[in-house]
Amino acid sequence: MYKIVKKEVLNPTVTKMEILAPAVAKKAEPGQFIILRVSDDGERIPLTVADYDREKGLVTIIFQIVGAATIELNTKKEGDFIADFVGPLGKASELSGLKKVAVVGGGVGCAIAYPVAKKLHELGATVHSVVGFRNRDLIILEKEFSAVSDEMAIMTDDGSYGEKGLVTDALKKLIESGNSYDEVIVIGPVIMMKFVSLLTKEYGIKTIVSMNPIMIDGTGMCGGCRLTVGGKTKFACVDGPDFDGHEVDFDEAMRRSSIYKPFEKKAYDEACNLFKGVE
Amino acid sequence: MPNMSPNKNPMPSQAADVRNKNFSEVALGYSEETAIDEAKRCLNCKNMPCVSGCPVKIHIPAFIKEVAEGNFEKAYEIISESSSLPAVCGRVCPQERQCESKCVRGIKGESVGIGRLERFVADWHNEHSTETPKKPQPNGYKVAVIGSGPAGLTCAGDLAKKGYEVTVFEALHLAGGVLVYGIPEFRLPKAIVQKEIDGLKALGVKIETNMVIGKVLSIDELLENGFDAVFIGSGAGLPKFMGIPGENLNGVYSANEFLTRVNLMKAYKAGAKTPIKHNKKVAVVGGGNVAMDAARCAKRLGAEEVYIVYRRSEAELPARAEEVEHAKEEGIIFKLLTNPTEIIADENGFVGAINCVEMELGEPDESGRRRPKVKENSEFTIDVDCVIMALGTSPNPLIKSTTKGLETKDWGGIIADEETGLTSRARIYAGGDAVTGAATVILAMGAGKTAAEAIMRDIEG
Predict the structure, then answer these.
(1) Residue B422 gets which letter from DSSP?
(2) % chain A with pLDDT above 90
(3) What is the pTM of this model?
């Protein structure tokens, strides 16, 4: 059992939790993920490590309330326990040696982009952050990002905060205005990672994306998380989750992530009704 | 007088058209009377050919003699001297290729039902015994076991019985390895696995779940943190695919994923939180036990047509004879001498059909099996909405990549001495699928046992 030491609501659909898991906290690095089960009959869900405190033994996760498992997780309060918490899984992001980087985050993906930006900043790199949200109410980690960024652009789909437009618009502007990046790191919805990768390919800028496909064990056993990278089958759990954005078959990844959509929708609706009943 | 009936007592089983709709155990087990009757078929041969066929060298005639006399607990004690998991082995060992293949009674009739008797004895014990194993006096040595499958559990059990302080590290949330994520409930009820694990815990074995060695701790850290030796029984790794077009379509599973969803995550149960698609027409590619398990699970999930697609002929099927027989009885359709060439998508990117070619057997290859080759102009299509690839696995890279000096073969299997399980690193031993590639439960147990003996010899001198 793993204790929820702190819980914070970041916006109506995104929650942050700090989980007591000293062994995981000791080894976790930006880019890696954990798998958790809320209760004994629960689904195994992968979440990227958002932060860690090695001394206090805490691992931070930030999740969007999208399915039955995350709804159930969100019912847990500070001091409650979750059944399982395993990690750190996957390879850490390779950040050393980078001098100037654009970090692009979309939606809840910003939760994962932030520790990357923070680590780059600590390593002395110049960090330009581009973060995008649907609207003002969904913005998370604005202060945190600005603290570790040399330049920052906030984009909203509806223009209710920052600039109206997509992250690709802001990134394009930064590149066109003469910034030359060693690397662009993109974390967010697959569709966003696809379009950022298409853009950076035009400019020939190396681009790393963080893939978060469906998986079960997360240790290289089930093969559910496979994706095509450079024409070869790769497993996100052991070969990734970071991959070269110019090589990933995003359309296949989007299609594969939709396998259980009808099931998830049904489970989500049922869970919503269930918890409504409880409250 | 021995019972000279040429045939084994048949195993009472659920009827095929009933069991192919449920996940309860297929074989129901012998009654006491049947067990005694079957045991009396044993001639108690002096040279014990059956024992030579057993990877863990159970004293087979001795235990069967006790069964014949109705001393079931005594029979259990004899089996326990050699096997840590008798209720499991009685169910999943390929006896027809091991002990029973050497049985003298098999020359002019059917061999003694050794596996069925082993299962009977273990079940009888589990049902009647109230004694929990006693924790032995600790000897002060600590051993870490990586993986809680058959290799790891056997190694842990043998060491714990001798007073070693054993900690088993399991990556998943539940102990048992392939016994819980791979082999289905209808072939090996999970309550039986749990009982065996509880027995080990009573011996003092500690089991730490959610610990991925190579990530959260390295093997070197285990050795630095006070473990005198480490046994790697981390099992099979990444699933193999054929490399044909369409393998990443929605609805193509590795057998590992399909079975893990069904068995470990209980997706077959109504209200399960882990999803599985209930497909109508399923093709399972491969001919081993895993392929049979996947096909029979798919049938039980409601598929109308389930195919086993295998490129060699029936004689080469690697699965246990009983599993093949059960699968056929349950209505699984065997497409033998058939090889897939492409998986075709439907309009939504899900599996719509599988293209295959017919094969014929040519000259024997290095493995001694006749090499299948493609028959010309034999292409045909099977309409399916799900394809499950059961082609074996390649070893998991996590431990190799985080343990300096641990040597592996080209294909990734850890190199370990056959006599001792010792790897290229001192104090690090390995066995089971991590060493051999996909094999059987009993071979993994044999390797766990060998390594436990070697660890004790090396530590105690």
Answers:
(1) B
(2) 83
(3) 0.92
